[in-house]
């Protein structure tokens, strides 16, 4: 079984929270997902969008393991307006503290018409514009997209994973899931 889930902002990509009892955080167990499925990969608590879950260990490895290079496409709202040189740097690959990234597909896009409001909303500075990027990577280092956009001078304000390989968020509102 393979499940597509639209993970809302603030939800952990796991079924239990080993945090403090005083302030429990939302987890996958809050969404009525089928039993015995596990996340194939991860999506940070402060990121939104597509999370694939499966009950098949081989399929989980095929989706999540970097050696299979499944492309992951993100819609990224960044601070400022990236220059052509900043976009070119993302396309070439940037060197982060843990080494160079693979080249990415990167382009500026308009805000998606299907976009849902985020709770809480992003911080907005009246004197600094924001821009949407579509970024496709084939690796999945910890907080990689955020670190890449920061490296080129444009911190990420909002991050939504749209697709992994052939699977996408199409037709899923935040918190909804469907068998793929």
TrEMBL record:
EC number(s) from the headed UniProt entry: 5.4.99.-
Taxonomy, superkingdom: Bacteria
GO molecular function terms listed in the Swiss-Prot or TrEMBL record: catalytic activity, acting on RNA; pseudouridine synthase activity; RNA binding
One Pfam family cited in the UniProt record for this chain: PseudoU_synth_2
Gene3D superfamilies per the UniProt record, alphabetical: Alpha-L RNA-binding motif, Pseudouridine synthase I, catalytic domain, N-terminal subdomain
BP GO annotations: pseudouridine synthesis; rRNA processing
Keywords: Isomerase
Stretches assigned to the Pseudouridine synthase RsuA/RluA-like domain: 3-151
Coiled coil: none
Enzyme type, top EC level: isomerase
Entry keyword annotation includes ATP-binding: no
Family: Belongs to the pseudouridine synthase RsuA family.
Name by which UniProt lists this protein: Pseudouridine synthase
Record organism: Aliishimia ponticola
């Amino acid at each position: 079984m393979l499940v597509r889930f639209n993970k809302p902002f603030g939800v952990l990509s796991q079924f239990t929270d080993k945090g403090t009892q005083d302030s429990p955080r939302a987890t996958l167990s809050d969404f009525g997902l089928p039993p015995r499925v596990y996340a194939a990969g991860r999506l940070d608590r402060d990121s939104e969008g597509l999370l694939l879950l499966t009950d098949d260990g081989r399929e989980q490895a095929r989706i999540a393991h970097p050696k299979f290079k499944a492309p992951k496409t993100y819609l990224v709202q960044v601070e400022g307006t990236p220059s052509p040189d900043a976009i070119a740097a993302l396309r070439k690959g940037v060197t982060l503290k843990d080494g160079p990234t693979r080249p990415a597909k990167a382009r500026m896009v308009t805000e998606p018409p299907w976009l849902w409001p985020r709770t809480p909303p992003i911080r907005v500075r009246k004197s600094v514009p924001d821009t949407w990027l579509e970024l496709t990577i084939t690796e999945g280092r910890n907080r990689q997209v955020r670190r890449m956009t920061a490296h080129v001078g444009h911190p990420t304000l909002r991050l939504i994973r749209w697709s992994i390989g052939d699977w996408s968020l199409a037709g899923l509102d935040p918190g909804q899931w469907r068998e793929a």
